[in-house]
Design goal:
mainly alpha; 4 helices; 81% helix; globular
């Protein structure tokens, strides 16, 4: 389940970058298709994340924080794509995105007991 979650996140990041490049290149139809696929991947991310939560015997604050930050990142994906399509400034959103991405990776790989890198 962990590998499915990480794969879904990696796929979402790749699709996000592709959608941005398509938008910047003026290929609106292609960008729209990629954004729709990206939204399906969001469902996979949320589904695998919930599956991981249900596998944990005791949920602590770190799991809740990771869920909130993960949803924040998904929201930032959508907001950045929307504002980029409208040619509006996204500098603050990119800063938030980097901070949130670092935080979610730290929580996922180093802080949570189900992590593949958690010191046993």
């Amino acid at each position: 389940m962990i590998h499915g979650h990480v794969t879904a996140w990696a796929l979402a990041l790749i699709l996000f970058v592709i959608a941005l490049f398509l938008q910047k290149g003026g290929k609106d139809k292609g960008a729209k298709i990629v954004k729709m696929i990206l939204r399906v991947v969001y469902l996979l991310i949320i589904g695998t994340g919930l599956g991981l939560i249900f596998m944990v015997s005791q949920i602590d604050v770190w799991y809740i924080l990771k869920m909130v930050v993960g949803l924040w990142i998904i929201g930032l994906f959508e907001i950045i794509l929307g504002k980029s399509a409208a040619n509006r400034k996204t500098n603050i959103l990119w800063i938030q995105f980097v901070v949130a991405w670092i935080l979610v990776l730290y929580l996922g790989f180093h802080k949570l007991p189900m992590s593949i890198m958690y010191p046993q």
